[in-house]
Every structure is written in C-alpha cells, then in structure tokens.
Amino acid sequence: MTELEQTENTFGSEEELKATIERLADRIQALTDSTAGKVEDVAEAQQMAQTIKPHIDRLASLNALLLPIDRIVAKRHQIHDLNVRIEDDIAAVEDITRSLSNTEDPLLSDLNNEIAAVKQDRKLYIEESSASKSRKISLTKRKRKARSESLEILPIEERFSRILSERFISLDTIQSVFSVSFSSAQVQKYQQNLEQLWNTLFSKSEFRPYVEQSALEPLTKAFSDYAILFRTALLQESEPTTLSSLREYFPGFFIQGQSRGMWYSKQSFYHTPMRKPHWALIDKQYLNCTFKKPSLRLKMYAKANGLPLKMVRQKTALEDTYDRIATELTLRERFFDNCNSITGTVYTDTTAGQEKQVFLYYKDHCIRISGKSGIPHWKPNRPRWPGLLPTIALPY
Q1: Angle, alpha carbons 222-226-228 (nearest 5°)
Q2: More confident of the two residues 330 and 1
Q3: How large is the average pLDDT for residues 207-218?
C-alpha cells in the first residue's frame, strides 16, 4: 500500500495524522524545488494535493475549536480594541480600492462587495435584487422623461410623506400633538432645514435613479424602519420642552405615584430644555452595544451611510422620551424596539460622587428612566439588550 493510499484510509490520532500530513506536505513542496527526490509523475502530484486538502482543512477546523478564545479575549475592552482595529483596516482597504476604482478587475469588484457586506450595519440601502438592478438600468435609460416625474418637483413635506407615509410626522402634526404654534417665518426656516435633510439623504447614488423616476416602492422599503419628526423646543404656552414639561402634559407615559420611580426629578437633566428645534430621522431598531461602545457604533453607522459623524447623534434622555411620545401618539403604536436605550445624558450621584449614565426602556406600558455606572448588561430577568437608538439630525 502506497503512502497516499495509507493516508486516505488512516484515521488514527491527531499526532499521527499531523505527522503524515507534514511528510506529504514536504513532498508537495519539493515539487517546486530542484532537489533530489522530486516527484516526476505530475498526475500523482495533483492527486496528492487534492487528497491532502481535506485533512489540512480538518486540522485547521480542529485547531480553531481548540483555540483558547476565552484566554485571548478575556476582557471586554480587548474585544472593543479588536473592533476598532477591524474598522481601521476596513477604512484602509477602502482607501486602496478607491485609488483602483477605474479598473475592471472582477477581484476588486468582489472585494468591494465584501466591504459593503461588512459595513451593512443598519445601513440605508436599496436591496439590489436582479429585478431592482434591471429596473435601475431601465430608469437610467429614461432619464429625460424622469425630470418631469421626479419627486423633487413636489413640496418638501409631501416628498417625505410619499416615501414614509404616516411615519413622516409633519410640522402640522407636531403643532397638533404638542399644542404649539409656529410662525410663518419659522415654518419657512424649518422647511429649508428639511430640504437640507432631503439633499443629504437622496444625493446618494443608490437613491438618485428612484427619486428621479418617483419609484416609491424601493424607497419605501429602504426607509421602512425609519420615521422623520420635528423636535420642537417649545410646548404649549411657549413652555420649554423638558422632561418635566413632557411629564406634566403627557402623564400617562410616565410611572405614577412612586417617588422612587421618579428619582430623576431631582436631577438637573430633568429640567434641561431641548437645545434647539431640529428635524430627526429616527431608527426604530437599536444598534447593539454589548461589545461596542456607543461612540464606535455611531462612527460605524455614519461611515456605512456616508454621513458626517457630527450629523449622526446619540439621543439625550429628553430626545429619546420626546420621540417615544410623538411616535406613539401619531402612529397609535409603540414604534421603537425595546432595549436598554443608552442616552448621551449623564449625571453625578451626589452620595457617591460618581458619574452615571442615563438609559430608557419600556416596562408596564410606561417609559422608565434609569441610571447606573457603565453600560447595562443583558440579564435573564431583564431581557433587554444594551442598545443605541441613533438619530440623523439637521441642523446639527
């Protein structure tokens, strides 16, 4: 029996298998060397290479299973550092591929597809099925006709309404829900800001053909998990928008009759007003922050969507609460997926002098506001993942 046949039929210990593979590997390596003992039979050499590959794959798999991952990434911050390095590596590869963008290399195309798949972290995109690709080609051919049918000839609020339907919460709706009145000058200014948001989102190459042709179906699908609303800095009777005023006007959203549940009423952020009125594109799904800091998640989200980092924001406790009230009263349903929503609001515990993070979640049909040091962890008795609800805001 030849050594090759013996290898195919032997499944002894890992050490024996490894030794056999190493001997065969040496013989294969020798094929490229001008040394004695070179295998002259090319057919046999090819057969050896094909036969040895499954065993090498098996060894690699076993080695991966035996690798002591828990010792390599024993601490959470090590995983975070790894994510940062991966993000930097992706950015470096992107820079290289951009300099080669004029080539028609299929390998380069595959690489760009792989990068896109890695970066698709809550990315606003149109699913490129074969049908949508052919439709896109058809749209390009009809560019001249598209100019007369484009969504962009419509008033700005109607454009967003066509795409998001009731999930576009207009200025009129905000005025009705929060009993506030905007002057004509304010309305004009806010609509100009909304136009800026439109240009930022729909200047993207993947959206342009559909906008020009008023192809609503793929656009609606792309934004199916998003809503747009206006965050007003004033409520009824020109009272500043704060957590305190929201609780006063919408008490049903908050826990009642328990001072312990209202611990935050003694904190300064409870009376801090909305910084300035602005439009916000809000995501119903959260970015999981189990292993990644919110700042890194925002960076990845901004990069994936080609947006300025300062435009992609972490909500404050006030903005998070405002969004929940506005969407639920308008849509008649709870819009956001439940999680331990990590906000950008922090406070100092006067007893311990320690800075703590504020986060929100739903419980018993109420918005709960909690605080702790660090990021909350998932627990079986509190099955809510630590997450970030991102905002794309204008003006920023």
Answers
A1: 120
A2: 330
A3: 90
Please list, in sequence order, all residues whose beta carbon lies within 8 angstroms of the beta carbon of residue 83, skipping any fewer than 6 positions away: 291, 292, 296
| Contact (CB, 8 A) for 229 and 174 | yes
pTM beyond cutoff 0.70: no
What tens digit of pLDDT does each residue of 23-79 get?
766 666 665 555 545 556 667 767 767 777 776 666 666 555 554 444 434 444 555
Is the preceding omega at residue 155 within 30 degrees of 0, hence cis? no
Identify each DSSP E strand in the chain by its residue range: 226-231, 278-283, 287-288, 312-314, 340-349, 354-363, 366-372, 386-388, 390-394
More confident residue, 39 or 304: 304
Q: List phi, psi (to 5°) of 392.
A: -100, 110
Residues 6+ apart with CB under 8 A from 35: none
CB 212 within 8 A of CB 145: no
Task: Pull the structure tokens for residue 320.
Answer: 């998070």
| Structure tokens belonging to residue 21 | 């593979």
Q: Reduced to 3 states, what is the DSSP secondary structure of residue 306?
A: coil
What is the CA angle 311-312-315, rounded to 5?
Answer: 115
Greatest mean pLDDT among 31-35, 304-308, 356-360 lies in 356-360
Residues 6+ apart with CB under 8 A from 357: 342, 343, 345, 346, 371, 372, 373, 374, 375
Cα–Cα dist 284/394, whole Å: 18
Banded model confidence at residue 313, pLDDT cuts 50, 70, 90: very high
Task: Determine the Cα–Cα distance for residues 252 and 357; give it in Å rounded to an integer.
Answer: 25
Question: Is the confidence at residue 259, as pLDDT, over 50?
Answer: yes
Helix (H/G/I), strand (E/B), else coil: 278: strand
Q: Which long-range contacts (CB under 8 A, 24 or more apart) does 216-224 make?
A: 216/162, 216/163, 218/126, 218/127, 218/132, 218/135, 219/126, 219/163, 220/163, 220/164, 220/165, 221/126, 221/127, 222/124, 222/125, 222/126, 222/127, 223/124, 223/163, 223/164, 223/167
The answer to whether residues 342 and 387 touch, using CB atoms and an 8 Å cutoff, is: yes
Count of C-beta atoms within a 10 Å radius of residue 328: 17
Rounded mean pLDDT of the chain? Answer: 78
The 10s digit of each residue's pLDDT in 164-175 is 999 999 999 999
CB atoms within 10 A of CB 264: 19
Smallest CA-to-CA distance from 395 within 308, 311, 323 is with 311
